[in-house]
Amino acid sequence: MTSDRAYHHGDLRRAVLTAALDVIRTEGPGALSLRDLARRAGVSHAAPAHHFKDRTGLLTAIAAEGYDLFADALAGAPDLRERGVAYVRFAATHPAHFQVMFQPDLYRTDDPDLLAAKDRATAELRAGVAALSPDGDPRLSGIAAWSLAHGFATLLLSGNLDDAVDRDAEDVFRDLGRLLFAEGPGAAG
Question: What is the pLDDT of residues 39-48, one digit of tens each?
């Protein structure tokens, strides 16, 4: 019975991903070890390598999954401001994915699944920016919007806004969007 448990798992890939996300959320990506994740999943130390090959492969899978989830989160937003809110919400609800996604030195940047997921997320972000500056440079507008959303999300996750934000972070972000991006194309009233 023990040998069956050590080598047969209902969904080992998902179990290892879930354990890895927990480790990243609490200790950071530097604390990841396939051997420790195998122990947590109750399988042989070599079993995770069948799904991910190595630690970098595991982090690549986390980044790809993160970008897919991120694209889904952005897709439902009706305008740029709400895409920014969705960005902040995604970071708050998926902090481990968020942490890995924006550290490309952790994963294989040329992985086809990662590239497809990243392209989807980028298209969703760009769709929200297109209406922001019909006469200006959409790349600069995109960088401005991204900087605001990413900076706010990063400060929120790191606890640096704990004293400054005394109400719902999403509402605070909406107010920041109103302050910095005047009502107009792509802005919700």
Answer: 888 888 888 8
pTM for this one? 0.86
Locate the DSSP E strands across 57-139.
none
**Model confidence over 69-82: pLDDT tens digits?**
999 999 989 888 89
Q: How far is CA 164 from CA 78, 87, 146, 152, 156, in A?
A: 28, 19, 21, 12, 10
Residue type at 176 in one-letter notation: L
Helix pair angle (55-75, 12-27), 10° resolution: 90
Q: Interhelix angle for 169-180 vs 138-157, to 10°? A: 150
Residues contacting residue 35 through CB under 8 Å, at least 6 positions apart: 45
User: Looking at this protein, which amino acid is placed at residue 101?
Assistant: M
Q: Tokens standing for 111?
A: 């992985």
The torsion region of residue 166 among left (phi > 0), alpha (psi -120 to 50) and beta comes to: alpha
